[in-house]
Amino acid sequence: MPEPKESRLRINGIELQVYEWPGEGQPVFLAHATGFHARCWDQVVAHLPGRHVFAIDMRGHGRSDKPEPPYAWPDFGRDVAGAVRALGIEGAIGVGHSKGGFAVAHAAALEPGAFASLLLIDPVIMRREMYDRKPEGEHFAARRRNEWSSPDEMFERFRNRPPFASWDEQVLRDYCTYGLLPNPNGEGYVLACPPHIEASIYTHSSGGGVIYDSIAAIDIPVRILRARMRTEGAVHDMSNSPTNPDLASYFKQAEDIYLPERSHFIPMEAPGFVAQHIQEMSRK
Fold first, then answer.
1. For the chain, what is the largest distance between any 2 Cα atoms, rounded to a whole number of angstroms?
2. Nearest of 281, 232, 233, 282 to residue 257 by alpha carbon
3. From the candidate CATH numbers 3.40.50.1820, 3.20.20.70, 3.90.180.10, 3.20.20.140, the one assigned to the domain spanning 5-139+206-281
4. Exposed e or buried b for every residue in 55-70, given b needs 16+ CB within 10 A?
5. Phi, psi at residue 204, to the nearest 5°?
6. Where do the domains of the chain lie?
7. In what order do the strands lie in the sheet with 180-182?
8. Are 95 and 278 in contact (CB under 8 A)?
9. pLDDT per residue over 51-63, tens digit each?
10. Which of 55, 128, 163, 266 could form a disulfide with 38 if both were Cys (CB 3.0 to 4.6 A apart)?
């Protein structure tokens, strides 16, 4: 697979990194989850040969700018809307995983015409009553190990540990290779999404209730891939679904596909499966 074209966009006062794989047909726009980065989609793109694909590093992630917290969830949607506008994207398939699902749905309402359909992969769009709660202390992501000697060290440490043990091996390689940046304070590397930023994003997820207003304005086909349900009380189990089980009912045109055999990390475990759904949703 050829290396993507890289570009920087000035959006909403910050610079965002975008990767583009030139190709034919209906474009595909990919938005990643909290703590991840655009190149986690590489193996999905590999299953879409010849397609025109874009993937964005969200604010605070990858090679994009990292303003200090707090991180308001609607800003991620505004960033996606600004990016597709700047790139001149129209009639694309908007694909978002986890927080990325929230972002592309919000962007679809803000920038009508940018997307012809949406594929929301276990999106962090919670039950309505879960929004507008006050943040509860420091999120455990703030304690993630930040410094690494190399991507290889990170890969070897994670490969046999949950949830990474169930991932496609090359996806894990991509996550480690592109998920580190040179340490500005010494030798080795640091996470491309700093732990305090990742923690802030999780902590402020309850401020995203505006998403239901956006959903009401969306009138394009939507497919929701929903992972196994979260066990009651398992608040720190990131492998189970955060998605409102009734989410499809809030859209004008949506279908819900429940995948109890899958964890929240669907694109990491089964990139070919995700690519198949993108192909199915493509215009004939």
1. 52
2. 281
3. 3.40.50.1820
4. bbbbbbbbbbbbeebe
5. -95, 15
6. 5-139+206-281
7. 147-148, 189-191, 180-182
8. yes
9. 999 999 999 999 9
10. 55
